[in-house]
């Protein structure tokens, strides 16, 4: 974050303009009118640039919004490949920190407006959300292949349990300390009690870390 | 649904008015302006009733909205107490059917507007959401007490995994066949492979059903 700011002073003019345009888009998108309030005109006025400067990079309002949303989401950490447990924990922790109150409104407004702006929503899914989900899918599939995860696992169901618990949070609420780790641990071990098997299973799990 | 409609013809006038008011509230709330578009005046006009008829039952716009949202959510099935697996599956299946496209916009608009209308959102949480979460908490706690679920379980984490996977769904998407059952089964068993323990654990699980 500070690194980014430090670099900022030395940025060329076109990069500064690009950043101002993205910020203006997010500001407008976070307002109550949401997608309806974002127009190339409004973004240009707010960013202090000409409309041509925007159209030179983004052919449409939809392209601009999707780009801005993608710029907000930090990329998921590159899976180390050491174990599914480690990789899923690293990913889950990223969601803990991925909460910027100002930006969460932007996402609500786009997802909540899916019915009214289906093409925008589809692009957002395809360009911002699916690549992130693919990272998680790959970690889970690799865990199945390595034998760490159950061979009969439904990858989509496993991903939905993990992602749902990390994204379906109440607005304005932060996760309790250690939440991401607890979610991954609970998902890995399951909630069912299996008294006969627990000691061996535990041993296997900890030695595998 | 047909049962409800059949009863409708015989309803007394005040009940019909109440229903019209609730419907008008949901219609307005589902529109893009969301909470901002709901006012006692607008609801009265749309429902074809006088403002007094509304104020007689609901002291404020917030009370009316929360009541209308509560009327949409079907109550969760009464837990049978037979097993956590059965009760959680019955609850999860209810979420499968709990998708009314028109109403989902209402919920998005209230949750997405949490920052702007914090009191409305808090009441909605307290009067509509928390009672449903309490049903799930009780099922999980009972499972821990009976020994079916792990004694060291974090109830909130387990509930968040279950509910997240059932509610953080993409808009306009229906669950695949058997999704609710798969979610509960995956959550109960966990996704980790524990080869030494699997056979005994399976036996225990199936005999416990």
TrEMBL record, chains A, B:
Residues 15-76 form the HTH tetR-type domain. It comes from Actinomadura luteofluorescens. This is AcrR family transcriptional regulator. One of its GO terms (molecular function) is DNA-binding transcription factor activity. Keywords: DNA-binding, Transcription, Transcription regulation. Gene3D superfamilies: Homeodomain-like, Tetracycline Repressor, domain 2. Residues 39-58 bind DNA. InterPro entries: DNA-bd_HTH_TetR-type_CS, Homeodomain-like_sf, HTH-type_TetR-like_transc_reg, HTH_TetR, Tet_transcr_reg_TetR-rel_C_sf, TetR_C. The lineage of its organism: Bacteria, Bacillati, Actinomycetota, Actinomycetes, Streptosporangiales. It comes from the Bacteria.
């Amino acid at each position: 974050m500070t690194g980014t700011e430090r670099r900022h002073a030395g940025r060329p003019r076109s990069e500064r303009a690009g950043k101002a345009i993205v910020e203006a888009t997010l500001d407008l998108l976070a307002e109550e009118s949401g997608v309806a309030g974002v127009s190339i005109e409004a973004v240009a006025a707010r960013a202090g640039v000409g409309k041509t400067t925007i159209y030179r990079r983004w052919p449409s309002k939809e392209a601009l919004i999707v780009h801005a949303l993608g710029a907000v989401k930090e990329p998921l950490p590159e899976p180390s490949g050491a174990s599914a447990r480690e990789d899923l924990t690293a990913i889950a922790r990223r969601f803990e920190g991925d909460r910027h109150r100002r930006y969460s409104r932007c996402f609500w407004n786009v997802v909540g407006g899916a019915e009214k702006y289906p093409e925008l929503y589809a692009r957002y899914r395809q360009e911002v959300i699916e690549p992130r989900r693919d990272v998680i899918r790959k970690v889970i599939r690799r865990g199945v292949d390595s034998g760490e995860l159950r061979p009969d696992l439904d990858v989509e169901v496993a991903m939905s349990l993990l992602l749902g618990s990390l994204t379906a949070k109440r607005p304005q609420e932060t996760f309790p300390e250690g939440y991401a780790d607890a979610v991954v641990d609970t998902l890995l071990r399951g909630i069912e009690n299996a008294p006969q098997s627990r000691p061996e299973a535990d041993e296997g799990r900890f030695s595998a870390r």
